[in-house]
Amino acid sequence: MLLKLSLTGIKARLRDYVVLFSGLVVASGIFYMFEAMATNKNFLENNSMISATVIIFHLGTVLLSIITFVYIVYANSFLMTMRQKDYAMFMMLGAKGRKIAQLIFIETFVVGVSATIVGTVLGVGLSGIVQQLLVQQLDIKITHFTAINSSAVLFTLIFFTAIFLLAAIVNAMTIVKKPILSLLRASETPLPANRKSVTLGLEVIAGILFLAIGYFMMAQVMQLAFLALIIALVTIILGTYLVFHSILIFVLALLKRCENIALKNLNSFTLAQLSFRIQDYTRILSMVAMLFALALGAITVGLGFHNEIMKMTEATTTYDLVLNNGQNFRSSDLQTIQATADIAYQQKEDADTIYYDRGQFDQTPFIAKEFGTGRKVKKIHYTGEQLAADATAADQLRSLELPEQSAKKHQFVTSEEFAALPGEVTQLRLITVADFMKDKGALKELANENFRKNPTLDKNMNGMSQKTLVYEMSNAVFSGFEFMGFFLGIAFLTMLASCLMFKILSGAKSDIQRYSMLEKIGTRRNLLKQSIRREIGILFLVPGLLGVTHVLFGLQMFKSLLSEPYNNLWLPFLIFFVLYFIYYLLTVWIYTGIVMKQKV
């Protein structure tokens, strides 16, 4: 009987439960995907390149676990708020507290476990998609990967079941302990927004001060390290809370006093609606702003790491292809690439020395890269005479030579002296192409051929001389951050938007009478809908703007990891705001359907 009653309650609030259900499905799906990638032992043991991303996926799992826990607690409390009138009616009809607690437990647990099962199935599909994305991004062949991972399935089910078990117990105990009258009138009893001017002013100043300290500390991460992160986290959370607890109330009060704004259309009603329950929205708006910053920051930094792949490759290597004993490569071997420069430095050597023709370096200087101030990389052209005088530049040339040549001295002699030296002439060929990404596959084949023709070369020890291998190593690391950022961002966005929807929709029932009265006295429906759009728009916009501000200052922390953290910000911002706007439209549509009856 209790199960049937629980299912009936879920059906009655199906629209609200669908929002919760979809958010939980996405969260559990992404959670499973992270675990499936990080705990697939056969996959990791047989694909050493991918293993560099393991710790990244584990880090993503930890962050997702924390946010998921907070999200579930908030989401369930909102649903309990919407259902508490029903529970109060059951108590008035004689239902015992123990039975009500069992009813709440069943409802919470059924929705949670069902969402987890569906989310795990979704996660299996996501794992397969991510595997294909990793293959395309890393441009490698991987083996022993299976989307269905028993360890990941078990861990996901245990984690989410434990959370829902805890949430169900807390919800049941909270509802049962409340008086019946409090349950009946809870949604109609907002916290008072009127406070003393002095207190409000002090909170406004404190909020601005806390945010300023937090933003300053995020710029000092390189100097103060972990201490700066702790101070920034505490002060930004406090500042965010005070923004909604005082500054927003202060701004609403000013707008209500401005006749040009308040008396236009239904602005006075909209401002009154916001002021009526703004105190009750303080915590949820604060949490949404923080989640917004985390979500947008994760996507922004993730795409930023994608841009770092080629930047790091270019900064590390000068030439697109290095051919040792280049005389063994024919012109026909290089027809697969579009070379813009093919430099062949001739070599002769004895037991202690490698000899180079200095005239070749004077005609075509050797190019080396050096890091300048602000992580800027500059190219330096070295002639033969400069190489002979600069040990650092000579070391960069030495890094391109064969291992058995690394211990020998360099001698840069004239063309006549070089021709007179005994011994076989070999070539160190340094090739540059017009478009590295276009010729990447062919360059990789030629690099592998260079390893085959020179057995003393080792990919692990001498791989940094080949641009394609440097690209693959950078891609293996940064792609993990990229995927983690993207999927975490989507998970956070789903949760924050769902939580805000729950809070707004939880007050919709009490607003039906207000909108009905306005319509009865002749207010046009388009004005009522406009008022709804503006009210909900403000509730979405304010935490969004504060979250964007957090991100813009927070990117200071990634200057040590990203060469240009603010480059191309429009792309992640556009992606995020499109998804965020879709949630806004969905909320407006659901809310309008509740508070305004359809015309007959």
The assigned structural class equals: alpha+beta
* Number of E-state strands: 7
Q: Percent of residues in helical segments?
A: 55-70%
> What is the helix tally?
23
Mean pLDDT: 79
Provide the succession of SSEs.
Answer: HHHHHHHHHHHHHEEEHEEHHEHEHHHHHH
Q: What's the end-to-end separation, in Å? A: 37 Å
Q: In angstroms, what is the radius of gyration?
A: 32 Å
Order the strands across the largest sheet as they lie in space.
1-7-2-3-6
Total tally of structural domains: 3
- The shape is elongated
Unreliable stretches, pLDDT < 50, 5 or more residues? none
Task: Kindly estimate the percentage of residues that lie in beta strands according to DSSP.
Answer: 5-15%
How does the major sheet shape up? 5 strands, mixed
Structural account:
Belongs to the ABC-4 integral membrane protein family. This is FtsX-like permease family protein. Its main location: membrane. It is a multi-pass membrane protein. It is found in: Cell membrane. The protein has 600 residues and is α+β, with helices and mostly antiparallel strands. The chain folds into three domains: 1-189, no CATH class; 192-315 and 467-477 and 519-582, no CATH class; 321-465, no CATH class. 70% of the residues lie in helices and 8% in strands. It contains 23 helices and seven strands. The strands form two sheets. It has a five-stranded mixed beta sheet with strand order 1-7-2-3-6. It has a two-stranded antiparallel ribbon with strand order 4-5. Helix 2 runs antiparallel to helix 4.
